[in-house]
Amino acid sequence: MNKDLIETPRFNFFIGDEVLLKGKIVGFDVDENKCVENVVRLEYGQTLNVANNNIYITDDIVDKSKIKVVVPQCVAEYIEFKKKNNFHVYGAMRVIEDHYDKKVPDWFYENNIEKFCLAWLNGYEVEKEKRYFVKIKGNIKGNMLVYGELLKRYFFTKNFSLDNVIYSHTRKELEDANFGWVFDCSGIEIEEVEYDTNA
């Protein structure tokens, strides 16, 4: 038998087959239509410009230990407190239902046990808390609750262009300042804010 024929690589694919190539994104480029494309270097050195819709990341490529889960602020505080007091993950989970803030065990038992473990082991990002405008209902002049940074207190105002005031508040900020009642008061209008008005 011909030795050259035996050592000739066999083709595993046919013309027209769709294939995925393994590579690493090494930069970005702008094409003739002014669209940004990824510059991908293949394992053997060649580079290609590839649009986002043609990039796939598979589970075996992604280092899942670098992906941080997102947890609520109360859970982040619980994890930090337990770690500071030398708990291990099992110990922290075992006593979670005894925690004074019932939002923590409620979140934990809403199918978040694995997420809690990942947060403990790999770190986490804190979920952005919802922010709210608080207004007195009706046609009242001073109807917006604000926090004066210089005065260091909450007050109602009609002026919406004050400097050094915070217009939107998290539930925790309001509860800590004894304004938690606004969420249950029929004379108060609560409006969820889509963006951070204080930035």
From TrEMBL:
It comes from the Bacteria. InterPro entries: DUF1642 (IPR012865). Pfam families: DUF1642 (PF07852). This is Phage protein. It comes from Streptococcus pneumoniae.
